Amino acid sequence: MKRSSLWLMVGLLVGCGASNPKQNMPDWYMSATSDEDYFVATGEAESRRRNLAITAATDRARVELAKQAEVHVENLFKDFQEQSGDVTDPVVLEQITNVSKTVTKRSLRGSNPVQKDVQAFEKPDGRDADQEPDIWYRGFVMVELSRASVDAQAVTAIRTEDELYTRFRATEAYKELESATSGVDG
Q1: Which of 30, 60, 68, 186 has a CA positioned 20 to 30 A from the CA of residue 110?
Q2: Better pLDDT: 121 or 88
Q3: Which of 33, 39, 2, 27 shows the shortest CA–CA distance to 117?
């Protein structure tokens, strides 16, 4: 008897999971990937208000975008450090950290939502059958950010740090970065 009760509970849980609104995710949400031209990230959020679901999903996607951009900028500076031999200089390391944070923060202003979807669903909350259903919204957002824009922000930020700029300008990494960003506004 215990065994059949266990299987009944498992069956109910699996059956209830089939109506999970997360199974209705847009196709683009799970297949969004960055490429050589753009960083791409997705975000999802729930709220009782439609606009807050989209706003929160956009914010979450931008957090993921910021992580990608920050890693990209840090990698640019690692190349610079290796070429210049400034791997352990505390002044350079502090300047790189500051520039990296500034670039990431400024770059996110150029991020754009390219896909949005909002889905309404009833959230079970133990209400009585005669009460109105509790309607919630789940927002899905995909944002993108141009890699060239991030690189241009990096060049601009480096130029504001005199000592860092002087050292960085002499490396091949800077020449590659500058040529990749020629014609891109920071």
Answers
A1: 30
A2: 121
A3: 27
